[in-house]
Amino acid sequence: MATLPEVLADLEAESAALDRLVSALPVEDWSRPTPAPGWTIAHQISHLHWTDSVAALAATDPAGFIAKLSEVDDPYRLVDQTAAEGVAPPAELLAKWRAGRVALIKALSNVPEKEKLPWFGVAMSPLSSATGRMMETWAHGRDIAETIGADEHLRPTDRLRHVVFLGYRTIAHSFVMHGRAEPRQPFRVELSTAGGDLWTFGPEDAPNRVTGPVLDFCLLVTQRRHPADLALQVTGDEAREWTTVAQAFAGPPGAKREPKR
Description:
The protein has helices at about 5-25, 40-60, 60-70, 75-85, 90-110, 125-150, 150-155, 160-170, 170-175, 215-220, 235-240, and strands spanning about 185-190, 200, 210-215, 235. The chain is α+β, with helices and mostly antiparallel strands. The longest helix is centred in the middle third of the chain and has 23 residues, at about 125-150.
């Protein structure tokens, strides 16, 4: 399991890679639609800025975060609403996102390791919060990279270990968020990296098994691909059901992608 400094360093690196990608774009490209329905590139960065900001608020002022959460009328519209409200000219949006990232890393670095921070539907440690931010930054960066055909940015890195870990840890959570009972049997996850390594989670004799490429697992748990479009081998009734509800993020289930095949 990674430490908080390790995750924060990888979050900073992932954010910087995405920053280099979007800061080089012409202004008009920020209005290009991404694979997320109704979201442009500007919406994607706006969402990252908003979630970084509220994560920092949860770390520095938990009561303030809870008060902000109590003002939410419709949690199912919150993500789309805040992304749209935060859209601004690219230079302004970039400046806000950059400042918010610095504030977030500072805030999480100062939280005691075992302290629980409020979040949407679940309290989490600063390590879990940082891991969640890493997951979201990669996922939304993926949408942007696919939009502009940035092949270099699409290549998987070792930073995906945090996304994989979160995807595995949230298996039961995925069922609950979709109104279903938690799985009764354990899961085994075996994922191969581009470099030939094998990342494993769960007992070797688990009846539910998910195997395949690291990238495909990450695309599934971030809801960037439909299960039918992924090279994952799935064994066990609960594992097969999980592929239809998998989500590594907190809050209501997201709008899943349609199959491309």
